Amino acid sequence: MFKRIYSFVKENLLYLILIFICLLISFVKLPYDVEMPGGLINLSDRVKVDNKKIPVSGSFNMAYVSVVQGSIPYIIVGLINDDWDVVKNEENLLPNESISDANKRNKLYLEQSKNAAVVAALKEANIEYEIKNKVNNVLYIYKDAKTSLKVGDNITAINGKKVENISEIVDVVNKGKVGDKLKITVLRDKKEIETTTEVILLDKEKKLGVVSLTTFDIESSKKIELDSTATESGSSGGLMMSLMVYSGLMEKDLTKGRRVVGTGTIEENGDVGEIGGIKYKIIGAANKGVDIFLVPSDNYEEALNVMNEKNYKFKLVKVSTLKEAIQYLEGDNNEK
What we know:
Elements: H1 2-11, H2 13-27, E1 29-42, E2 47-49, E3 52-53, E4 59-71, H3 72-80, E5 85-88, H4 99-124, E6 129-141, E7 146-147, E8 154-158, E9 161-162, H5 166-175, E10 181-188, E11 191-198, E12 200-202, E13 205-207, E14 210-220, E15 224-226, H6 238-250, E16 259-262, E17 265-266, E18 272-273, H7 278-288, E19 292-296, H8 300-310, E20 315-319, H9 322-330
Parallel strand pairs: 4-16, 16-19, 19-20
Antiparallel strand pairs: 1-4, 1-5, 2-3, 2-15, 6-8, 6-14, 7-11, 8-9, 8-10, 10-11, 12-13, 17-18
């Protein structure tokens, strides 16, 4: 048996070496990310109101950016293709942040975005709602922090006193002194754990040295379901999710048979915010087909430059609020 293996290796050594090199080139990851145009996520199967899908003659779609960790083949193509970009891993991370923590942060941004999208739609539809079961999540930890908190922890109490709002946490810190050690109770992996955090001076203010983000449940007369997949993250789909929810709440087909694509964060008051990667989203949408692209005001000029450079013909619409997007789509002068 050994002789047969030895004979095979000897006779095919060059081919085996070439295979090994190809595998090495394909699977070894370098400290770079490759950013490229992504695709579209059709929200028709993602949003339900009162257990029903929302009937639309066209579609609402979220545009996204594709990012892959830099293997040598991807990096080579990224350096050649003008529509792709090669960036260092650290450019997509905050200071003192691991890739794992960044992934958790972006998942939390997605949950917050879904909350804001539903609230903004309910407000625009004049439907009353109640916020319940607030969760104060640790989003980011500064380098200078003196804490045993971890990204993803849910802060439930400080010094034995339950806290519901981030403002309550800030109040406890402000009443303390720099150097005070606070006992912070958190839920971590569904287990209650007591941690310790020291009050520090950060940017001339007393801080815990962490950034928190609140997610919550929403109760209203309408049952709203807004699904996402395990691979999705970030807050840039907020505007489009809110438009889809609003269409269901009002039983209005705002698409009017058009393929409506867009991007933009959403605030609970309906304000639409700037996003990253607009170039990739415009190109990705054009590759998939689009009638209207809704873009945040702060991204409009860059998006317009891409449109002109690529000679795209679909309609680019600048919006600053959810209301502006609705008014445009409802208008009779912009039919497909």
